[in-house]
Amino acid sequence: MADEFWNKIYDKLIDNYELLKLICFDTSNQDLLSWVNPNHELKVRCNRFLKFGTITDKDGLINEILTYAKSNNPLRRIILLTWVNKNQSSMAFFSQAGNAASIEKLKKGEFGNISKVRILSLIDPREGSFKLYKDILEEADKKAKEEEELKNNKKEEIQQLELSNAEIEAALHSKEIISSPATNNGAYSGNFNEVVYEELQKIKAALEILEDVNKKLKTENKELRNEQNKRKTEITNYSIKLESKVNENKKLSSELAKEKDLNSSLSTQLKYAKDELAAKPAPTISESEINDLRHRLDEALKENKELNKTLNNKEASLNRIKEENDELRSKLQNSTNQSNLVSNLQKKLNELQSKNNSKTQAVAGQIVTKARFDNTYGEKSGKKCWLFVSVTGELHYLDLNEVPKNLSVPEEYMLATFDDKKLTELQSLEAERKELLGTIQLDNDKALFICDDESFPIYQDVTEKWNGRPARGVWLPELEDREAGIYKLDILPDTAKLNKTQPKSSKKSPDKDKNKTEKQTKFKGQKVIVFGGDRVGLEYEKALNNSGLSAKWFSGFSLLSEISLGFGKPDLMIIVTKQLSHALLRELNAYAEKHSIPVAYSTRRGITSVLEIAANSLS
Asked: CB count, 10 Å around CB of 380?
């Protein structure tokens, strides 16, 4: 969902030449050359700004690149995506909750310098973020202006010092004349005392100016020494941190090499087993047995195909870890993000090590129905369980508590991992599998699942009491004899009311609609929490608070364990299903059911829709 959202944003941004120009000036010379060299036409146009493969005029080169990019859409996209991919630490600001803490981090430069903040201000699609960036950029421009004025003042002081030195030399010259009156042709022709007095006054003024300048220079010299000592301390601390990160990186590289050796050993064992099996003589069997074996072989080939897909996924995971390790080496200068990267890589390595245990057995198949454990399962005998049938016809009994609700889907092909007959992992093999939010609609004998103005057939028994109820459904694509549709329904709690009559979009200004709704709806201080709808975000809080509610908004991509609700049990929880992760949705439903919190759902993220839901739910 997040990738689709950003792709639409990027499609609009590639025509923003102000943004592309800022990105080019924030891009290294190496990346600029990587855009020019492969393009013969562009390289010919830029040769006058290059000498022996290096850039001699960066401003001229960038202007030529931008002029060429106006008629070259792929180059504009490369310019934008290169900056986005190489500035993930800056782009991480969009995944932060829009609170005072994240804004303070942005001001302190934890998401990049002022040039990167200026670029983020043009990329950020969230409503209401304009004023935030405006304040930060105005403060930075003001500071830059003050620094420029300080430099100019220093230049004036230096010029004044030079002028003062000239006056001192002139005064000293006059002193020589005074001390040797015999050489002064006019000393005896005029008033000699007046000449002496005038020259002494010049000497006094020059000495006063020199004394003031010396005081300023001493003060500045002291400040520069203090700043130099501070920088030395920072460099020492950073060197220690950098050495620590390099050691951690070496450790990760060593563990990754061990993982590769283990995978190579497993591949060798598999090849040996295949050769040994091929060396055995074929037994004499009947025609029916041959047909049965052919059928089993076809099923085994299907299972092997799925297992190869899983193996490729593991190999892709190893490649991804290598890429992240390389990225870690290139980002060692950012000490704040290093600890998180190392921790994530360590976690993924541990997961891969546990999955590569030679005692485990991976089986591809389907959950068929509920059954009961047989007598070989001891205390579990007779208790209800799921019956899992592999593609080769092998039966497995799975404990109901070990199978997540969203994975107990008939017709879905899954990969079950067993360790001594105990289920350790269950994952879907359906690449196009989707979990959708919508409502159930019964039309005569036909059951439909309505989701975002689309309808899908439901291949599960549906009762009359479910008609109109909000639910979460699992959609599976068409496969062999299986039709595409909903094969698993999870009815949401009774307190959930999915907004069905949302107002259609109009040409009226959103601000006018918001003000109109706020004037019509007034509350009495009830407490409301809103999750999701990140593109609107903090505007929910403003609109709900202005209507008399005590509201709080949280991002749809947070984890409930990381969120502190902060003001007790709410009177209503509103879930905006746009820009909301399924993991958070499951946590919210469980939390609301446990604490008896009323829940309302909105399939649209407009402020007017959320206000209308609050009015209907709290009335």
From this structure: 14
Q: What is the mean pLDDT of residues 200-226?
A: 83
pTM here? 0.30
User: How far is 261 from 484, CA to CA, in rounded Å?
Assistant: 42
Chain CA centroid to CA 424, Å: 30
How much is the pLDDT for 504?
A: 36
Contact between 412 and 437 (Cβ < 8 Å)? no
> Which token pair is 441?
């609609």
**139 and 106 in contact (C-beta within 8 Å)?**
no
Given a contact cutoff of 8 angstroms between Cβ atoms, the answer to whether 503 and 516 are in contact is no
pLDDT tens digits along 485-506: 898 888 887 555 554 433 333 3
How many Cα atoms sit within 13 Å of 410 on the Cβ side?
Answer: 12
Instruction: Indicate left, alpha or beta for 208 from its phi (over 0: left) and psi (-120 to 50: alpha).
Output: alpha
From residue 269, give the alpha-carbon distance in Å to each of 266, 273, 360: 5, 6, 15
- The whole-angstrom distance between residue 326's C-alpha and the CA centroid of its chain comes to 19
CA distance 540 to 559: 20
Give the number of other CB atoms < 10 A from CB of residue 157. 15
> How do residues 343-368 score in pLDDT, each as one tens digit?
554 454 455 555 555 567 778 888 88
Place of tokens 């000498």: 51
Q: Residue 572's pLDDT band (boundaries 50, 70, 90)?
A: very high
User: Following DSSP, what letter does each residue of 266-314 receive, concatenated?
Assistant: HHHHHHHHHHHHHHSPPPP--HHHHHHHHHHHHHHHHHHHHHHHHHHHH
340: burial class by Cβ within 10 Å (0-12, 13-18, 19+)?
Answer: exposed
Place of tokens 């950012």: 334
Q: How many CB atoms lie within 10 A of CB 89?
A: 15
Question: What's phi and psi for 567, nearest 5 deg?
Answer: -140, 45
Q: Which two tokens stand for residue 528?
A: 């409301």
Neighbour-count burial of 250, counting CB atoms closer than 10 A to its CB (0-12 exposed, 13-18 middle, 19+ buried)? exposed
Q: Which residue matches tokens 């931008």? A: 66
Q: pLDDT, tens digit, for every residue of 125-147?
A: 777 677 778 778 888 888 878 88
